[in-house]
Write a structure and sequence with these properties.
mainly alpha; elongated; five-stranded mixed beta sheet; 569 residues; single chain; lysosome
């Protein structure tokens, strides 16, 4: 029936898996398994490292890395996106929960609920108010904060505070305490990771018409470079294990981790401090403060930006509200397995796309690898050196520092540097304040442009005033000021033709101000004539029954009016 068809199409809109699963092919399965395996081997070491950025025990990184694959397969609209822990979400989480695992899990639930409600209310458009300069300012500052935050682990330093400026001071202050083993291993890992990144980048610039043996070698190099994080972590762990076995504790290692899969249980609604004091739900939410607004927004923004970018690249479209729902449900369900808030990962999504993933089902394979790691490999993670994880993080966030964007903004619109700089600088103080400050400055610039539209004034016996943009109520006071100073307060007073062909909407405040202006023109025995009105605007103005209202279809027609003559319609 038609009703059944409509209900099925609605179901397909809410469950995008129904669009591609009936057409699934065996060839797709091979590509999805290959991509899922590759991404899985990238996810495990990154998840462990990002837990460190979030200030949580390393197993929480893996707890957060598997739910996204299952949920996104059902609800996601991009074949490439992989959900899981990211550098930016880990930094935001650290700044809000301060290393308390219970609070991080509760934060995941609350973020998920906010995102899911936003999806159901179709509030995805709110993300449009976070401008590109704000996003760039934040990501650059986050990359610097996260990258420098790992220098202490490369140096093997203990007791360095989390707050950025104190962290910078104490890192340099404690350099004499650096552990030689950590420094050597950390720099060696950094060197290897950078070399592998450069080798992978050089593959893309070579000619493709190479011999078969050369092609095999290229594929081998590409595979090794793609799995570089896993290979470096395994190699560093073996080195640490072998030194430990001989009784030489020269590296700072991850240490004891929880074994096995996380229990499936409702997220905690209270927290217990070190001295046994129970912190109630309301107090925790108050402590979250602005982070509870920033983290859901940034999570969605990051993921949708990634999905859109890869959609353009691979020629498909995404549904922003559906992406919002997928991330929301992932965070809600993740909170039942002790996850902290997650979003789309640019690095892992790029690996997924380059490996040739065909559907979101590749995420299931990635999630299975994470679950297998949790079930069987946790004891081996004891020996992962912190310097090695720090090298992985630094290499992951380094590309986020986009210094070229400053030069582009300077060339295109210098004013855009203001929200960029405000966001960048404030993010070093508190990450969430940086985003809020940037959005506030962007909003102020947007409102200023609405309140101060460009008005081109030219003299043709009568004054012609051309509005370069729409006429909204914040702009009306400014227009009124221009008309008074240039037409009504001069001697003798001048008639004005108002070119309104850009005006598409009009409100009560504008009508009220126009009524007063028409009265002022009538008192001075000069005319205010409207030209080029759109039918919808003309209908509103006629309905308002303004005394002395005159209009013409074109500016040329209005220009022929003598300044002191009354005009007939």
């Amino acid at each position: 029936t038609e009703q059944g068809c409509c209900s099925y199409s609605t179901l397909k809109a809410w469950l995008p898996i129904l669009s591609w699963l009936p057409k699934y092919k065996l060839k797709w399965l091979q590509m999805d398994v290959l991509a899922g395996l590759t991404v899985g081997l990238t996810t495990v070491p990154q998840a462990l490292a990002y837990a460190e950025v979030a200030g949580l025990p390393v197993q929480y990184g893996l707890y957060s890395a598997f739910m996204g694959g299952f949920i996104y397969t059902l609800l996601g609209t991009s074949k490439d996106v992989t959900l899981g822990p990211t550098a930016i979400m880990s930094l935001l989480c650290s700044s809000v929960v301060g290393g308390h695992p219970q609070r991080a899990v509760l934060l995941s639930l609350l973020c998920g609920l906010i995102q899911a409600v936003m999806a159901l209310l179709r509030l995805g458009f709110l993300l449009d108010f976070i401008s590109y300069p704000v996003i760039k300012g934040f990501t650059c500052a986050a990359a610097v904060t996260i990258g420098f935050g790992q220098v202490k682990n490369i140096l093997g330093l203990q007791g360095v505070p989390q707050e950025f400026f104190l962290e910078v001071y104490y890192t340099f202050h404690k350099i004499p305490e650096a552990r030689i083993g950590d420094v050597v291993l950390g720099l060696l890992c950094l060197f290897l990771l950078i070399m592998l990144v450069l080798m992978k980048a050089s593959l893309g610039s070579d000619d493709s018409d190479a011999s078969t043996s050369s092609s095999v070698a290229r594929k081998l190099v590409w595979t090794v470079a793609t799995m570089r994080n896993a290979l470096v972590v395994v190699a560093a762990s073996l080195i640490a294990f072998s030194w430990d076995a001989y009784g030489h504790h020269v590296f700072t290692i991850t240490g004891q981790t929880m074994k096995g899969l996380p229990p499936f249980k409702p997220p905690p609604t209270s927290d217990t401090t070190a001295n046994g004091t129970v912190v109630p739900f309301r107090e925790i939410v108050e402590d979250f403060g602005g982070g509870l607004a920033v983290i859901p927004f940034m999570g969605v923004l990051e993921s949708i930006a990634i999905a859109t970018a890869f959609g353009y690249q691979n020629d498909y479209r995404i549904d922003a509200n559906q992406e919002l729902l997928a991330i929301g449900v992932t965070n809600i369900m993740g909170s039942f397995v002790s996850a902290y808030p997650v979003t789309g990962s640019f690095g892992r999504t790029a690996v997924n796309s380059q490996t040739g993933v065909c559907t979101p089902a590749g995420g299931i394979v990635t999630s299975v690898i994470v679950l297998l790691s949790l079930a069987f490999l946790m004891p081996a993670f004891y020996y992962i050196p912190k310097a090695c994880l720090a090298a992985v993080i630094i290499c992951a966030v380094a590309p986020m520092v986009d210094y070229q964007v400053v030069a582009k903004m300077w060339r295109i619109r210098k004013l855009d540097l203001l929200p960029f700089v405000v966001t960048f600088l404030m993010s070093f103080w508190q990450v969430q304040y940086g985003i809020m400050g940037g959005v506030a400055v962007s909003g102020a610039l947007l409102l200023y442009n609405a309140a101060r539209p460009q008005i081109k004034v030219s003299d043709h016996n009568v004054l012609l005033m051309e509005l370069s943009s729409g006429l909204s109520f914040p702009a009306m006071e400014y227009l009124s000021h221009i008309i008074h100073t240039q037409a009504l307060q001069v001697s003798p007073p001048r008639s004005v033709v108002l070119d309104c062909h850009h005006v598409s909407i009009i409100d009560y405040t504008v009508i009220n101000e126009l009524s007063d202006l028409l009265r002022q023109f009538k008192l001075r025995r000069v005319q205010l004539v409207f030209s080029g009105l759109r039918p919808s605007v003309l209908k509103v103005l006629l309905a308002a029954d303004l005394d002395g209202f005159r209009h013409t279809d074109s500016v040329e027609e209005a220009m022929q009016i003598e300044s002191r003559d009354l005009i007939d319609d």
